[in-house]
Write a structure and sequence with these properties.
The chain has 329 residues and is of the alpha/beta class. The protein has twelve helices and 13 strands. The protein has a three-stranded parallel sheet, covered by helices on one side. A hairpin with a 2-residue loop joins strand 9 (170-175) and strand 10 (178-181). The chain is elongated.
C-alpha cells in the first residue's frame, strides 16, 4: 500500500450539506431548532459559517478576532454543545468553515493585533503577522501603517477627531469607533503634565509614588527590543505599571483629576492648531502611524487578505502560530 494511502473505514463522507450562516440574527439555539427539519430533508451535515469571535456586528464571521473563542453574539459553549448533541441525535455531523490565515483587525477584541500596536516589534505577537518593520519609507521604520482616516492626518488632528482616553490605568486613542492602545513607554508625555498639575501636593506620599511610576516607565524595555528575555520583561512590567497607576488613582483622587486635566490638554482645542502639537508628538512616538485611507495601496506594510485593509494575514505556516490559532478547533 502506498505511504500516502488513507484508511477510509472511519472517515465520514457527507452526502448532502446545508449551509448555515451564523451571526447575531441566526444563533446556535436557532440552528438546533431546525436540525430535525434538515434531517427530514435528507441533509447529512450542516455546513457552518465561521462562528468564532469576530467583529461585533459581523454578519459573515470571516473577520475573526480570536480563533479560540465562540462568537458571543451566536451563543455560549452550552448553546453550541446542545446544537451538536442534536445533530448527533439525528446521525448528522457538521463541516466548519474556518479561517486560519487572516484576522479582522478593526475590533479591539483582537488582542494579538492590539498587542502589536501597543508594543511594536517587541510584541509577543509581532512574529504572528507578516509586517515589514523596515519599509523603504524611513518614517515607517518599526511602525505599522494604519490607513483608516477619512481625511489627511493634519486635518483630522486639528478637527479634534483623535482623542486620548484614560481608563483602568492605561491610555488609549480613539477615532470614532476605532480604539488604539498607547505605548506604555510614551505615557510620560501625559504623566509629566499630570505631575505639573500636582505641584501643590509635592509633600504628599502619593506624589512620590506617582513619580516612582513615571521613573519605572523609563526603565521599561523599548518597543524595538527583539531579545526574547527583554520582550517578556516588557510584557510583564508594563502591566504592573498600569496596575500601579490604576491603584494610585483609586487611592488618591487628586492623581485621577491631574491625569484627566493632562488628557484634556493633550487633546487640544478646536480652532487653536498649536494646541494639538503635544498630541501630534505623542502619536509620532507610537508603533503605528495613522494615515488617510487613500495611501494604503502605496504605503501599507502588512500583508492583507487581498487588498482588504481590515483583514491582516497571519503566518499560519509557522508551527507556533498554527498551534495558537487551533487551540479550540
Amino acid at each position: 500500500m502506498s505511504r500516502l494511502s488513507l484508511d477510509m473505514t472511519n472517515v465520514r463522507i457527507p452526502t448532502a450539506t446545508y449551509r448555515l450562516q451564523f451571526n447575531k440574527n441566526f444563533t446556535f439555539r436557532q440552528a438546533r431548532e431546525i436540525v430535525a427539519y434538515l434531517h427530514y430533508l435528507g441533509i447529512s451535515d450542516a455546513y457552518a459559517s465561521p462562528y468564532f469571535q469576530a467583529g461585533a456586528e459581523s454578519l459573515h464571521g470571516y473577520d475573526i478576532t480570536d480563533h479560540n473563542k465562540f462568537n458571543a453574539a451566536i451563543g455560549s459553549r452550552e448553546d453550541y454543545d446542545a446544537w451538536v448533541a442534536e445533530l448527533h441525535a439525528h446521525g448528522m455531523g457538521q463541516i466548519v468553515d474556518f479561517v486560519p490565515n487572516h484576522m479582522g483587525i478593526n475590533d479591539p477584541q483582537n488582542t494579538w493585533w492590539q498587542d502589536v500596536l501597543e508594543n511594536g516589534p517587541s510584541s509577543l505577537y509581532a512574529p504572528y503577522f507578516d509586517i515589514d518593520w523596515r519599509p523603504l519609507k524611513t518614517d515607517l521604520h518599526d511602525k505599522v501603517l494604519l490607513p483608516i482616516l477619512g481625511d489627511q492626518y493634519g486635518r483630522v488632528l486639528e478637527r479634534g477627531e483623535l482623542q486620548v482616553r484614560f481608563d483602568g490605568g492605561s491610555f488609549s486613542l480613539t477615532y470614532f469607533d476605532h480604539v488604539f492602545p498607547i505605548a506604555p513607554g510614551t505615557y510620560r508625555y501625559i504623566l509629566e503634565l499630570a505631575l505639573e498639575n500636582l505641584a501643590e501636593f509635592r509633600d504628599e506620599d502619593f506624589y512620590a509614588e506617582f513619580q516612582s511610576i513615571r521613573t519605572a516607565l523609563e526603565y521599561l524595555p523599548r518597543r524595538t527590543e527583539t531579545n526574547p528575555g527583554r520582550i517578556k520583561e516588557r510584557a510583564r512590567e508594563k502591566e504592573i505599571i498600569k496596575k500601579r497607576l490604576e491603584r494610585r488613582c483609586a487611592e488618591a483622587p487628586q492623581v485621577q483629576r491631574a491625569i484627566e486635566k493632562a488628557v484634556e490638554t493633550i487633546n487640544g482645542h478646536i480652532g487653536d492648531p498649536r494646541s494639538f502639537d503635544r498630541l501630534d508628538e505623542l502619536l509620532n512616538a507610537q508603533s503605528y502611524r495613522l494615515a488617510f485611507w487613500r495611501v494604503a495601496a502605496e504605503e501599507i506594510n502588512y500583508r492583507r487578505f487581498f487588498d482588504v485593509n481590515d483583514l491582516a494575514a497571519i503566518r499560519v505556516e509557522l508551527p507556533e502560530v498554527f498551534d495558537a490559532a487551533h487551540k479550540l478547533l
